[in-house]
Every structure is written in structure tokens, then in C-alpha cells.
């Protein structure tokens, strides 16, 4: 349900305005302090189409973080820098500034490694070599993969694989670094609390992660149907840590997302893991995955939300299993005195779901660290969206009826819808992909979710939490368009970024809910939703929702961005957002909008939008509902993090995977590409775009290695950012 400008203002609580929903470039928004940066596509820079054609006939892409005039940025830390007894990891994502009177901490997630660029730059950045060439040669006849777990411990190939896998897992996880502000500049001030929680914490150092909740019964179960790592409740490491959130009591929640790249995702009917062989180790020119395989990591221990207290040097993380196991992207916490705690998170996959955990007990003091205990008992729910803007939360417990999502309800991929469901052969376990409604309906032979899983009551609940995504599909929870970040404002309203409405191998979004401006599906460019619980009660089981921002070209009614991702709310009620377009689409040449008589796909048209960028969306006042570009990222990167200081004068951003496709930019190489652009009223013209080949950021001089890094953005005059 995409709403009109007038409906937006009514839903946001403002008066209906007369201006159309649009973005500003070249004009200062009435309610914002900065001059918007200039993107490669026209927004509203000129009064006429001819003005836009003239201004945008050429465009130079810059291999740097481009911020507004009068603003500056500085690098806080980059990949390879020392952190505690380890190093700053790779592909930093979520950032949280935890401020205190005596000290402040930055908690940072390290999501994944970009295989090609990581291997190319590792020897120089880390100062040691790894046997990449030898292992690639050994695996060439095996298609680049092997079940290294099955190799004897003293096998030389296994030892080489373990060396590579360890280093890759060290570069993932969570980091805590202490910082202080000196004359308005943020500096690292290393303390005992500085530490890394890596993908192998506990493997050799005893720093195991802990777990709470119903899934613990599965970890401790002796007679598992599937693989047993013999560690019971102890967990080795955390990885694929993407977005996250902060709690009002000063801890952070770190979201394990695409864990299926390192360990098996499907499980047996009792919630136990598949054998490590189901996700072999992979090493090619572009990939270094399956890194859990050589160490026999149990797949059911990954895909959780991890809580860490940055101020506690001995805290290496707790996985709260009542929050569910799925491809977590971000988290928003709502704590209201006298009410249950509510925790929202999305599963970032095509056809993923939006979830809410509601605690069993109520919040007593909002800022009390004892609130962490509320995460240990409650219930997980999935969102069911209705096309009229209402919705309900469906409990994921053994009593919930099986009422599967049907393939005909989701956006088709190559002419057919796809839904992943628990395998009806429960002895075999795992999942099945169904494309026919009849096959989905056949799952109703199991009356309840409890009938799908094996064990006593608590074990069945634990298994459902472990298999949350597939259980949610079986319960009829709405399939969504890659729900990524979530944030809650002071009034308790939830904002959700949906990155992409295209279907894929995991499924697709509900085709009645996730439509473009003309009702079309698939719609690639994304949405931002506002969701309000009935009576603003965090424990409510009903809500209303509306899409308040639409990605896409202005000529089609979009706001000028594509693929919204991380969100942050400032003290003025403005919504900050960064985009996550696939690296392969950045600045992709578009010499024509038709090819062989067919329209170029929306996916490929993302080349129009250039590099990933950061935006501000005012939610009140004369610019309410407009989108204003604040920053543009370096080459082939994703902007992540978005953490504002309490005084609103500093914005921390993670610059992830610069040079992911092109690697190190050689001799400042650049090429000219042609792209057929459109003015805001739809007239076509050709742009000559200068595009750097690869990246040298953050060093920015010839032959500098591209490195992910954490930066802080400030105004030069020391005033508030927006």
C-alpha cells in the first residue's frame, strides 16, 4: 500500500501540504541545515527539463566520501588497526556510540569479507601471507570446494584451509573501541574494555559465547537427530554481524545475518544441525566461504541476536534465542515502564519476515541493566500485513495453526512464485522449495507448528525458534521485500526499510503489499514503512502500517534513491537513511533503456543512481516526506552504521567494502560511460559519466589499498549536523 502525499501527512500527524513528494538538490531544505550533495540523476535542481539536461549532461564520480559543503569527515579506525589483542575487522557495518560521563565506546559489527579484495590486500594490510594459491590449486578439480571437516587433523591441506578460515573469521564479528572527544574531534583512547569478539572466539581462547532461551534445550539435548558439536550451550564465535541496535540500558544488540554462507541453515525436525558437510569450504578467485566447515561449527548456533555490554571487558556476548534464528538485519528496542519489552527485527532475504519479541515480564526501570533478563523469556511473533493498512502479530509457538504462505501470493520469479517450507518428510528434516499452491496446502496435514517439530514442549519451542523463518512461512506470516533496518521514534512508531521487492531463490514478497507507484510488481527500488501498534502498546497484537517513502526515479514518483538500508532517527524527528545497491550495479552503463525490444530491468537501471548514498527524510514541517541527499560513498562501497552522538553534532558511518569489484584502483584509472537519464518530467537525455575503476579509499592516492573503515562526519563550524 503506497500512500499519497496527503495520506502521508495525515498518517504522520501533519497538515496536508500542496507540494509534491520530491527530493531537493541545489536547494537547501527549509528544515535542514546542509546544502544537499549532487547525485548523478536529476532531482529538482533546475526549473525546467532543459536546465536538468544541461547540468547533468556530464557527471564525475568521486572515489571519496562526499559530504556537504562546510562538513568534514575523519577516519576513526580501519581494517587491520589494533583492537585489544586482535584487530579491527573487515566490512564494518553497524556502529553504536555508547556515551558515558567518564568514557565512551564505539561498538562495531564486521559483517563479511569481500573475497577478491580481501585476498588481494590481506598480505600488505595484515603483514603476513596465507596459502591462497596452494589451496585454490588443490581445489580446482573439485569446483573450488571441499568438506574440510572430514579431512584428518594432520592433513596438510586441512591445515592450510584452517589457516585461511581462521583469518577470515577473525575479520568478522564485533569490536569494541573506547573513544573520547577532544576539541570537538573524536579520538581513540584504548582501555581495558577494547576487545574483539570474532568468528572463532572460544575455539582456542576459552572466550565462548553464551545463550539463553528455549533453544538452549536443543543445544543441551543428548540424543540429537542431527549433528552434535559436543559443546552443549557453549558457542564458538559470532559472524556475519550486519546491522544492530542499542538498548536503553547501555548494551548493544548485534544481528547475525547471512550465516548460511559459513554454516548450514536448514535443521532437523528436533532443531539440531545438519552435518557440516552441507556447507563445504569454498575458495575461488572471488569467494572464501564455508569457513565454519573445517572447525565443525554447528549451524543452529548462528543466525541469532547477540547482546554485548561494551563497558564490561569480560562480556563476549550472549545469544538470546527467544528473539529467533533467521537472517537478522538490525533491531529496534522499545522499553516503556510498566509494559513488556518489545524488540523488532527483520529477516533480510527475499521473502523474509518482520518479527517482534515481547517479554514475559514488564520493564521496571527503562535504563536498568537488569532489563537484559527480560530477553530470556517471552514470545516471538511474525507480522501479518493486510492490504487495508492493518495487521496482526502471529505467535511462533507449538499451538499456532499451520496455514502456509502460498506461492500464488508472492511476486513471481520467471513466471512462478516460490515459498520455502519445512520438509514434510520430518525424518529427513531441512526444507523444500514449493512453486505450486497444492504442495504448500499439503503441509496442512500437520495441524500446528508443534506437529512439525520433535521433542517435549520446550524442545519443540526451541526448534521453532531455531527454524523461525521456515516456521513463519508455515504459519502464514507475510513474506516481505528484504526487511532490513528498524528504528523506533519517541512516540513508539516503528520505521522499517525494505531494500528490494524483487524475488529470488529464497522466495519473494507479498504481491498485494509490495507494489510500485502504479501497482506494479516486482518493484526493485524499495520502501520505508511506518508501523504503529494499536494504543501504542508495545505488547499489542494488532497494528496499522503505511509506506511513507518510495525508492525510484522522480519521473516515476520515486524519491531519487534506490535500495534503502540502515535507518537512524535524530532528535528533531528526521529519519536518516543509507542505501545498499548491489556493487555490480553501481554506475553500470545504460546506453539505451531498451534491449532487444524489451525494457531494461529495474535491477540494471540501478546504474543510474551511481554510488551508494546517505539521505535525510524530514517527517514533519514543510519538507515532510521529501528525501534530501546528505553524502555519497566512495567507489563500490556500501554506507552503513548511521550512529548520531547525543548532541547531534557527530555522525558515525561505516564505509564497507570499497573497491569490492574492481579491487585496488591502478594509476588512478577512470573510464567514461554513457547512461540514458531522465529529467524529473520523464524526458530522456544522455549523460557522459566519468567512473573510477576500483578504489584507493581511504588513502586516496595512487596505488593505495582499499580498506573498510569507520568515520565520523561533523560540521566545520561545530554546529548540529542537520
Structural notes for this entry:
This is Phosphatase. The protein has 722 residues and is mainly beta. Helices cover 12% and strands 30% of the residues. It contains eleven helices and 41 strands. The chain has a nine-stranded antiparallel beta sheet with strand order 18-19-21-22-23-30-29-28-27, covered by helices on one side. Strands 5, 6, 8, 9 and 10 form a five-stranded antiparallel beta sheet that branches. Helix 4 (132-139) crosses helix 5. The relative contact order is 0.15. The model is unreliable at 1-22 (pLDDT under 50).
> Into how many domains do the coordinates divide?
2
- Structure classification: mainly beta
Mean pLDDT: 94
- What percentage of residues falls in helices of 4 or more residues? 10-25%
Our estimate of the beta-strand percent is: 25-35%
Report on the biggest sheet: 9 strands, antiparallel
Number of helical segments with 4 or more residues: 11
**Alpha-carbon Rg, integer:** 24 Å
Mass-distribution shape: globular
By DSSP, the count of extended strands is 41
Task: Give me the side-by-side strand order of the main sheet.
Answer: 18-19-21-22-23-30-29-28-27
Distance between the termini: 30 Å
Organism: Acaryochloris thomasi RCC1774
Pfam family, one: PhoX
InterPro entries: PhoX (IPR008557), TAT_signal (IPR006311)
Protein name: Phosphatase
Keywords:
722 residues
Briefly say what this structure is.
This protein is mainly beta. Helix content is 12%, strand content 30%.
Write the layout of secondary structure elements.
Blueprint: H1 5-12, H2 49-55, E1 58-60, E2 71-78, E3 82-83, E4 86-87, E5 92-99, E6 104-110, H3 115-126, H4 132-139, E7 145-146, H5 156-170, E8 173-182, E9 185-188, E10 195-198, E11 210-212, H6 216-220, E12 241-246, E13 252-256, E14 281-283, E15 288-289, E16 305-308, E17 318-320, E18 328-334, E19 340-347, E20 350-352, E21 354-362, E22 378-385, E23 390-395, E24 419-422, E25 431-434, H7 437-441, H8 449-452, H9 457-466, H10 468-475, E26 480-481, E27 483-488, E28 494-498, E29 527-533, E30 542-550, E31 564-569, E32 575-579, E33 594-595, E34 598-599, H11 602-605, E35 613-617, E36 628-632, E37 638-644, E38 650-656, E39 670-678, E40 684-692, E41 709-715
Parallel strand pairs: 1-40, 11-17
Antiparallel strand pairs: 2-41, 3-4, 5-6, 6-8, 7-14, 8-9, 8-10, 12-13, 13-16, 14-15, 16-17, 18-19, 19-21, 20-26, 21-22, 22-23, 23-30, 24-25, 27-28, 28-29, 29-30, 31-32, 32-35, 33-34, 35-36, 37-38, 38-41, 39-40
Helix pairs in contact: 4-5
Protein name: Phosphatase
InterPro entries: PhoX, TAT_signal
Organism: Acaryochloris thomasi RCC1774
